[in-house]
Amino acid sequence: MGADRKLVLLGAPGSGKGTQAEVLAARLGVPHVSTGNMLREAVAAGTELGRKVSGIMNTGALVDDETMAEVVRERLGRADARRGFILDGYPRTLGQAETLEQVLAGAGDGGLGRVVLLEVPAEVLVERARGRGREDDEDGVVRERLRVYREKTEPLVGYYDQRGLLRSVDGDAPVEEVTRRILEAVG
Ligand code: AP5
Ligand code: MG
Fold first, then answer.
1. What is the CATH number of the domain that holds 60?
2. Which of 27, 72, 91, 108 could form a disulfide with 96 if both were Cys (CB 3.0 to 4.6 A apart)?
3. Pocket around ligand 1: residues whose beta carbon is below 6 Å from it?
4. Known catalytic residue at 52
């Protein structure tokens, strides 16, 4: 038990990670762990972490790996994440992928089950971000988030493929259909 429910959703900004993670978490009975949501909550609450990251998030850049390691180590260390989790927005760099491996090895109850790559054409991504109204959804920032994704996060596709964990899913379909495809791919 355990490892099969430890899922990572990988994909560009707007590919539907948050939307699908929420549905999957409810279906599989495991927590939805979104580093983006956690950072936005810290910003809203005005904590030290929030003050440190708000400017970075507003430009579309990534928060540094060390800060993110603390956030993720603390969250995955909580009791509710032992049986599994849906990770959304982490890892985003090769360094973060290595940290995640260490965190899970330390917990001693199994590594990642699967990594699901949500594939959505670039023009659909930009369209989806329009009108959602998050602070980093302004056109220029969306383009920068996409650029950062290609440069820093896309290498994780090969990293997880080499480890036999990657499943690619066409995410350009209605929400329920994408959920069905993900469940089929990890099943
Ligand atoms: P984060 O919050 O993770 O944002 P993101 O990855 O850029 O992506 P989004 O949340 O915009 O997209 P999503 O894939 O979740 O899609 P969604 O379901 O919302 O990160 C924000 C920032 O925080 C980063 O830029 C960085 O600064 C920082 N950060 C976070 N994690 C970090 C980390 N690990 N390391 C360093 N920095 C980090 O869907 C998008 C829209 O499309 C929605 O309106 C939705 O309703 C719609 N939609 C979804 N699915 C469908 C569908 N099937 N059909 C039609 N519309 C759909
Ligand atoms: Mg999201």
1. 3.40.50.300
2. 91
3. 11, 13-19, 35-36, 39, 56-57, 60-63, 68, 89-90, 92, 96, 128, 132, 136, 145, 174-175, 178
4. no
